[in-house]
Amino acid sequence: MTDKVIRNLQICLEDGSVIRGEVFIQNGKISRISETPIENFNGEEFDGKGYLAMPGFIDQHIHGASGADFMDGELHGTEKIVHYLPTEGTTSFLATTMTHSPDHIHNAVNTNKQFIGNRNFKGAEMLGFHLEGPFIHPEQRGAQPLQYIHKPSIEMLKEWFGAQLDDLKIVTLAPELDTNFEMISFLHNQQVVSSAGHTKASFEIIQSAHRHGLTNLTHFTNAMTGIHHREIGVVGAGFMNNNLFCEVIADGVHLSTEMLKMIGKFIGSDRIILITDSIRAKGLPDGTYTLADQDVTVVGQKATLQNGTLAGSVLRMIDGVKLMKELCHFTIHEIQKVSSMNAAKQLRVFDRKGSISVGKDADLILLNEDLELQHTFCLGELCFSKV
Amino acid sequence: MTDKVIRNLQICLEDGSVIRGEVFIQNGKISRISETPIENFNGEEFDGKGYLAMPGFIDQHIHGASGADFMDGELHGTEKIVHYLPTEGTTSFLATTMTHSPDHIHNAVNTNKQFIGNRNFKGAEMLGFHLEGPFIHPEQRGAQPLQYIHKPSIEMLKEWFGAQLDDLKIVTLAPELDTNFEMISFLHNQQVVSSAGHTKASFEIIQSAHRHGLTNLTHFTNAMTGIHHREIGVVGAGFMNNNLFCEVIADGVHLSTEMLKMIGKFIGSDRIILITDSIRAKGLPDGTYTLADQDVTVVGQKATLQNGTLAGSVLRMIDGVKLMKELCHFTIHEIQKVSSMNAAKQLRVFDRKGSISVGKDADLILLNEDLELQHTFCLGELCFSKV
């Protein structure tokens, strides 16, 4: 891979400070960050035009885009997603499965595995899997198909991912169905994130689950018990437990703008993880698409099943970031936390992702002063430029 | 009235600092606060025994105690309440009416008026009225009787309180029923507090009502629209609007302890006003009592109608204060805000109530280090001592 320098940047550093400078890239990694121009460089030159450089977005909860869904289990489909994601600033992600038959899930995992750690696929990097279902509560299933919901089973996990749960990063489950929190404890031992979602848990169950290792709440406020004044529920746990990350779909459809403000104000940038939860319809026109064999109708920003249930989103990370900035007046540092750093830390890839630092992967996005995406670099390769 | 000195105190001052010293009382008012002992005092001596002196509690929402209810419209009954309240640290209060027939409300107002500004009744001071209903939403009536609910009517207010609304301090109403916010605007002009309660208002309606003068939320979280992730409701407004006071019944029954913690953490001591909302059963054994002609059964801390609806409380202010201190780790300064200062400011009596300051009424409570009430002084007179 050719060495590269991106000159003339405003660089957002890991501590949130922004400096004028240039970023040098060697073999896909950031080799140097310099505040003074360095002449006589023997490699590719790229003019940053004074843009703001931030770490590429990490989307830990995404089902599809550009016509493809990871559950299709098709190499070519996943390749389309990987190519698409840099257009919204995403440079790494978790392939997120849905509640389906064991064979179907197994097949999706086997196919998509081929993308992990494989540099032949130019585009966003698949970091592993987010298993959303089938271990969820039927009454909070949202758009997850009822017939494939299953009680928590460690055996099934091992069948799909092997005894060491290779490449499994997050499991969304209903903790109230996990007897003695056995699955959560097992996942914790394997360094896999347990996330409460599609759940009817009480506040106390979440607190107990947290003590067994649960650290994340899946698409916070959606498909979970809300706040009642005598039982503050999973949503209350998200507000009150300072050790839980909260995934947020900032599309203004899944949550009202006032709820997004409330989350920004009280949960704050240290615990919010922006996600898209997007489906195959993202990047395509309005119309009818499929999600786990169900018809999903997309009109504007809204994707619904025939009964009106929200069925994922068509949100692009860059748009979620812009909305949160507008509503919550986040600083640049707060933005890099909610869009990249927090996920990198939780997924244990902060040694190579989640900030612009020497030695880390050159996953960079360049933004103008209105936070409009201009360029995306994945492992140092230019994968998107605004036309 | 004899001059008095209370020596050997820890005195909580208006700014929250606590000093060792003594408080001098002349004609019912605090005449001097001294950090050094003053000898040769020609008046009554009282040994404070090193207790903490705080401003007496102000309960802006109370229906009754000790067998009596303000709605009874009986002088002797109200006198019983006035005598009872110092036993829980309350030194001033608003007589709170309930939804009932216009004549009934009128009669209750006329009788109780005789207590206002009248020093013949030794005990807690009635500062005026809190009119709770009849201008409320039928579907959020709680224990307010359905048949007397009425649409907001300024004419009715004038009939009960006169054209200038004398002695009316707070009106609890459902703002969504107040056409063009006419009553709220009128109350605002008359310097009467509008409080949203027993309401189905949306977040936006509360925000509009606030722009017309609404400043208080009645027994926050009870009998109002809760937080939904796409419509955060009246409860959401309480959390998000920094200019609203929130009445809180801290009995652990109306709200769970977790919700009380959440309110303490996110709303905080500048906007919480502790109330009791207590009924005639307070201070009496478990049994069946009446509330607006309905049977109310009291077991422990819980008072309910026959259908199970909560019907006021039997909470004592001192117990609410202790619970909030335990749950929210409030400082002494925070405690004086939520139990006295905030209400005094909102009710426009902070020139004479709500803090221990020279020139203010000598409404004082003495507490031991566990916040157990030892003595209560109302306008300088000892009205309660722990046996």
Number of helices of chain A: 9
Structural class by sheet pairing and helices of chain A: alpha/beta
Percent of residues in helices of chain A comes to 10-25%
| Arithmetic mean of pLDDT of chain A | 97
Quaternary organisation of the protein chains: homodimer
Shape of chain A: globular
**Beta-strand residue percentage of chain A:** 25-35%
Strand/helix succession of chain A: EEEEEEEEHEHEHEHEHEHEHEEEEHHEEE
Number of strands of chain A: 21
Radius of gyration of chain A: 20 Å
**What kind of sheet is the major sheet of chain A?**
8 strands, mixed
Low-confidence stretches of chain A: none
Largest interface: A-B, 23 and 23 residues
How far is it from the N-terminal to the C-terminal residue of chain A, by CA?
25 Å
What are the SSEs and their pairings?
The structure is a homodimer.
Chain A: E1 4-12, E2 18-26, E3 29-34, E4 44-47, E5 52-55, E6 57-62, E7 64-65, E8 68-69, H1 75-84, E9 90-97, H2 102-112, E10 125-132, H3 154-161, E11 168-173, H4 182-189, E12 193-196, H5 203-211, E13 214-217, H6 233-240, E14 245-249, H7 257-266, E15 272-275, E16 287-291, E17 294-299, E18 302-304, H8 317-328, H9 332-346, E19 364-367, E20 373-378, E21 381-385
Parallel strand pairs in A: 1-4, 1-5, 6-9, 9-10, 10-11, 11-12, 12-13, 13-14, 14-15
Antiparallel strand pairs in A: 1-2, 2-3, 5-19, 7-8, 16-17, 17-18, 19-20, 20-21
